[in-house]
Amino acid sequence: MSTRVARLDLPSTGTLLDAADLSTGVRAASVLFVTVLTIVAAQVSVPLPFTPVPFTLQPMIVLLGGAALGARLGMSSQILYLALGIAGLPVFAASPILPQGFGRLLGPTGGYLMSYPFAALLTGYLAGRGFDRRYLTSVLAMGAGLALIFACGVAWMAWGAPHLGLAAAVSGGLWPFIPADIIKVFLAATLLPAAWKFLRTADR
Fold it and tell me: By CB neighbour count within 10 A (0-12 exposed, 13-18 middle, 19+ buried), where does 174 fall?
């Protein structure tokens, strides 16, 4: 009597969610889960005295969520997050000067928030093409998403609200956050290749 050892045949493209072959309901729950994680990450915020932009864990959740869910669902999770905020729910980072609700998007941090769906889309797009299978390419995918968040955030501070000008926007909205966010990207980039490795060995 012979025994067959099943091996997981993973596709060369697609996200972790695709590889798991989950039902529609579970996929919807996964989108909601990433939205909730984004809300929780917003509450873990540290205000800085020299800038209206707080230090939060949100970018890491946005990038990881986009990579794991894929472009379309990752973007959907962040659109849902913004929709809840616009509706007036207290999902944005706590601030003594910035309002909850739609007004937050018009304030100095609005560019960062509005970039989240597009950063998740970009990171998810790259992950779906295999960038999340290896550490270095995973860093590239998340780095691209992070660069988009910073570009939108700084541009909004410089030329949108509160119209600080480029130099002040860069000094208040970019340089203080670069070291910590780069470290977060390096750490987060280890999770996806590890998850793929687990899937490859799970059914051997």
Answer: middle
